[in-house]
Amino acid sequence: MSIANPETKSIHALLSENEALFHIPAYQREYSWQNIQLEDLWDDLEEVLSDDSEEHFFGQIVTNTSENGYEVIDGQQRLITSTLLLAAIRDVAKKFTSDQKFSSQLSEDERYSARRKVDDIQENYLLASNLKTPILTLPDENDVASFFTDLLIKGRIVESDNQTEKNLRNAYLFLKKHVSQYIAKKESENLGVPQQLKRLENLIQVFTKRFKVILINTASTKDGFVIFETLNARGKSLEEADLLKNLLLGFLSDDEESANSKWERIFTTLNRNSNETSRYIRAYWAFNVGLVNKDKLFRAMRKSNQLQNSSDAQKVLEELAKYVEIYYGLLKGLKSRFKDQELADLVDTASVLVKTFHPVVLAMYDRSFKESDVRKVLKKILSVYAVNIFILGEVANDLEKDLVKVSRGIKTGILANVEEINKKLDEIEKKEQAILTLPVWNRDKWTQNQSRNTNQGHVFLLAELLAAQPDETISSYELFKGNGNSKYRLIRLANLDQLASDAAYINKFGNYTLLEKKINWNEEWSLEEKADHLMKSKIINNRLMAPKFSQWNADLINNRIKQFVGNMRAIW
User: Fold this and answer.
1) Whole-angstrom Cα distance, residue 15 to residue 127?
2) Is the pLDDT at 3 greater than 80, yes or no?
3) Contact 184, 191 (CB under 8 A)
4) Average pLDDT in the 80-87 region?
5) Integer Cα distance of 317 and 440 in angstroms
6) DSSP E strands: which ranges in 201-288?
7) 181 CB neighbour count, 10 Å cutoff
């Protein structure tokens, strides 16, 4: 490995010497600094500003010599932020010459000095010597590259749904705001325009000359990958997805363009979200190899016998690119991604309720099962969740382990058809225990402090059980409707006073129903008023309850629970 001696450089020397051009390579992580990191930087800067003798170590920058300058192997977050800070300072400095309110209060020499500051920042720190090319660029394959260039060179900020662009925009605006506030006031004193200009000049001097980095340069991409992993793999500084990207592309450096293209397809489909990309790779690895904790995934894959060479890495990357659209559809409940309408409805439901079913469905697509087969299995998975999680209250992590075993059985061919898969799921499902539990169910989870997911689980249970009632015309999907589109809500029927001596039944399952959101409901209304509103519902079970609701008591609640138990046997 060929590594130049580490050098200590100021920000000024780093960006202005040797006609430096820096490029963030495609295998690097997205820009991710949030306010907490930006506040740390600004606090450090203010501390150095207040101490004339102090210098500040800003971390290491690791680069690799390339044809067009230097690829940034490590330190890209602080390097991008440094250029954004300088762009923010430049744009604050512009007001001293372009804003009549400010420029009129300056002498000709001061206005000239302000113009020079703007030009110096642009020419020395943000543009290459040709004064056209930005000194720092993001990967060409990345749509964010032009956004960053416009922000860096022109101070141009636009709204965006892309998370990386949001982060870049936020950082620039955060830093610009803090620069403006810093130069405008010293302690409690509001400063005049000439004093503000001097304060800005000092800020530039301190950041560019007294903030220091350790620069390490390597001679080859391969060496860069080794250093990147060494610096980051032992800590939590990177998302697992960033390390995994480096791991896979490290094997494929001879076909870097194609590998980058596949990764971009994966990452772009998942909205350039590192956390979601990690979860997707974890789901993929689960059905191919086994379940691994998210924060241990990189090490597990690096040590795996199934990822030893470029051929293995190529296979993994190709399959990740192949299934990412399906995964994203499952994750977001995108019904348009599925031709089978009932499957699409189930996917919409599962995306709200279930977080650990993806390996099973991905394994089925890997083994070329038809959508109608996937539909039958996903329906069964939802019933397992209804029974084990929403009724019995078991831990979702335990169920995840069981579902991954099913996915491995599908992948290896042990579970070769829908009947075998659902038989295995039957072994997991604890239906008989749930049937015994439902009549005595009296949980605090029904209170108003319930979590959103628990609440949604109970809405799903009632949607399934109400839809299975005799003569009901509304489907369970219509009653539930994932992704916040439901027209129905969960309500408690009788309150504590109305149940009187039967108060123990206040949170029994039979004392709840679903009701159209457009129909008003107040738990403090009289039973007669409630009956009138139940009669307005399109749900047949609600209308059947209404005539006898004035006599609502423990016996009627129990009778309703018995109906639900019968429905459980029929549908699950």
Assistant:
1) 9
2) no
3) yes
4) 95
5) 50
6) 211-218
7) 9
How much of the chain exceeds pLDDT 90, in percent? 47
Which residues are bridge partners to 411 per DSSP?
Answer: none
* Residue entry with tokens 């457009």: 518
Q: Give the CA diameter of the chain.
A: 92
Interhelix angle 274-288/256-269, rounded to 10 degrees, is 110
Residue 98 has a pLDDT of: 81
- pLDDT, greater one: 258 or 378: 378
Lowest mean pLDDT among 184-198, 274-288, 373-387: 184-198
- Strand pairing report for 488-492 and 512-516: antiparallel
**What letter would DSSP give residue 493?**
-
SS3 content of the chain, % helix, strand, coil (to 5): 65, 10, 25
User: At a CB cut-off of 8 Å and minimum separation 6, what does 477 contact?
Assistant: 345, 346, 348, 349, 463
Identity of the amino acid at 136: L
CA distance 12 to 61: 14
Separation CA 348–CA 481 (nearest Å): 7
What does the alpha-carbon distance between residue 118 and residue 130 come to, in Å, rounded to a whole number? 17
Q: How many C-beta neighbours within 10 Å does residue 529 have? A: 14
Only one residue has tokens 């762009």, namely 87
**What is the C-alpha to C-alpha distance for residues 235 and 232, in angstroms, rounded to an integer?**
6
**DSSP secondary structure string, 346-371?**
HHHHHHHH-SS-HHHHHHHHHTT--H
The closest alpha carbon to 179, from 96, 88, 47, 56, belongs to 88
Higher-pLDDT residue of 89, 393: 89
Q: Which amino acid would we find at residue 306?
A: Q
**Per DSSP, what are the bridge partners of residue 488?**
516
pLDDT tens-digit map of 376-420: 999 999 999 999 888 888 878 889 999 999 999 999 999 999 999
Q: Residue-wise over 13-31: b if at least 16 C-beta within 10 A, else e?
A: bbbbeeebbbbbbbbbbbb
Confidence grade of residue 231 (pLDDT, cut at 50, 70, 90): low
* Residue bearing tokens 């004392």: 511
